[in-house]
Amino acid sequence: MSSENDPNNLLYEAITAPKKKLAFFVGAGVSIESGLKNFKDFSKQFLCSIGPDTWTHTKNKDIDLITERLRPEVLLQVIQQVHGNNSLKFYNSLDSGIPNYNHYFLALALLKGHCVFTTNVDTLIEKACENIGIACQPIFYEKHYREFLKKQPTDFSSHLFKLHGSIEPNKAGLSKYKSIRFTLNRVGLGLGESTAKVLSTCLQERDFIFLGYSGNDHFSVHPELLKTDSDQKVYWFKFLPETTLKYTSSSSDFQSQRNNLLKEASKNLSAAKWEDISLREVLIKREPRSFLVEGNSSSAIKNILTELVSSDESPEYLKLNSKLESFQADLNSLKRERKSSLSWVENITDFKRHLCAAMLWIRVRNLTNANLELKYADECAKDDKEKAEVERLRATTYSITRRSDEEKPSKEDLLKAMEKFRSQGDLVAMVEAHLELANILRIDRNFDIALDELDKIEQELVKIKSELQKQKRAYDYPRLMAYLLFLRGLVYGLGRKGIFKDKIKGIECCYKASDFASRAGDIARKASILNAQGLIISQLAERTDSMFQEAEKSLNEALALHARIGDPRSCFQQSRNLLLVHRLRLLHSKSKVRDHWLDVAWEESNRTRDYLKQVKVGSGEPTRDKIELRFRRAQLLGFKKEIYKANKEFKKVLGYWAKKKESHQQARVWQDLLSLAENQEEIQNCLSNLLNIIESLFQSEDEQDKYKNDRLRLENIMDMLIDAYDKAYEISDRKSLNRIINLGSQGEKIAKNIGDDNLICCFKIYNSIPIHSLIPLEEVPYPQMKSTRG
Predict the structure, then answer these.
(1) Comparing 126 with 411, which gets the higher pLDDT?
(2) What is the pTM of this model?
(3) Fewer CB in a 10 Å sphere around the end CB: N or C, the chain?
(4) 172, 64 in Cβ contact below 8 A?
């Protein structure tokens, strides 16, 4: 049977009579049967050893949360900052092991001229090769990858490439973990340049078979798999116990499967199957040359080797037969002899345990738990140096997310903190405080000053880049650059004048920021960047009517990443933004497809509501988030012609904003109520209320000051006047038309004061309309304008 139809035959041919040279990519799954823990269990055991007293059991919910969200390499890198090279001793648990069927299969694959890539740092493949007499010289240092590329033509045959370093058993002490330490120091920088080049080149030249690999290391390998274009095939073996191997045909819609998995994740964040999502992202990239194989690949490989050793008497198979016969006995013996190598953890102070826990919580963006651990660490600190470490970490929490107004640091506090951190030589904390200052300036809509600050910070970051590498904190550079470019993108794309040129700059900044966030393995930051990027694109789409799909793509990717880290509030915000884009698409669509986009928008509003239910709120008073969602759902009810329900919801929203005395928000609601008004009395009531509010807004100096930095706010008023003119003209309401014309004149003056030529032009249309009462209504010119609301 052809290997195209039989995955067992694909593996059998690979080590008997291969038709072409292949590349195998293997992860931790291939070593589990050798008594080694998978990456998640490996991480849990480590956290139990070095965490606070509450982390004494691997089933602790805090440990589960951290190991779900952080790759082991990222986790170990954070731990290394606290415990230094002692943390590397934990790799002793991977320093011994007995090769299993998978490792011997890979050894035979090397013999046949295939190559193997692995993210594993254990030496079980090398031991398997040694046991049956096959030469194996692994490559795991960046300089060796560089030398490999110099050989022309490049020949991948019979090479073992270890992408995350390797234990070197022939060396003594901590020196045997030198390459692993190098990899940990690079977390946030991605694979080394030459390492990445070797992988991408091979992806372009050979078909790949993935075994025991989750695809979840988004800080290094996964980005390379996604960005490398290739016409070669991919066979991804997904392990399922007690199941025979079977293909999921390449003609199946992996994109649809991924979307369905994301929908499931939206209902229950903790049950999200991120490994399934990650592997499908790679398969989508290669469709229709990608194949998903589900089943017990280890059992299939065991059967293949058992068959071969019974029929082949070549030297390699004779030695292999002997090793396979003694495998279980050797493994049992090893388990009895294996001793703990973690005696050093007994001397860890409570201060370091809580400090380390706080750092881990910061990396997973759980500030509540982080601040709690920082409080405990502060109580355990024995000197000023340790207290300063606590304060430094507290400062970093401000750059992660903007807190509520009561807790937000002031500009003066941040300036003092910057000087303090500079004097202490804590360059990272200094930059973080400076970035938060720029963010506050952005929030206060001081956009030009914020941009100046960001330029200064970038110059500072370039200066300290080499120093960060010396301090083994190289990952901080891309992490900080991601935040810097993200803020710059927000200023250009969603702030300032909102002109096309600025929005393009904003998108460019987001692209660059996203690349840095990927290198840093900072999923939360990347999600925020994609969200901003999607919003900017959606605003461009509203103007050009041609970019909705790109906006949806960015927002969907952001939602996937927020869901991956299990943050319901961010998921709600993401889904809400998608709802806004779907609504815009509805407004811009032709009549035949409006019902489709209305259904899509309504379904998204349900998902948004489900996310919001998972967000913890303080008081029983409706939050602004709930009110905003009620407003959007009321708009959709209007589109669905459920007028009574829509009006009922709008009036609840109106009551909330009236209580908060937010006139602009009240005007937004009256604008929608006007669109639903069904008779002259209702229309005149809505017109009167809407125009009264706009008049009060135009008479407010505070409101006019806001227009200087928020042009969209004034543009919204222009839209309201357009809609009001339509309705007033419809019912021959000359009194309202005269008011609208006068308000248009006032709007033009405001637009001139803030120097917005586009708004001046839009408002100027009203000045060309005669307003004396003797002109018959039918002679009143009708402005040929289209509201951006549709």
Answers:
(1) 126
(2) 0.63
(3) N
(4) no
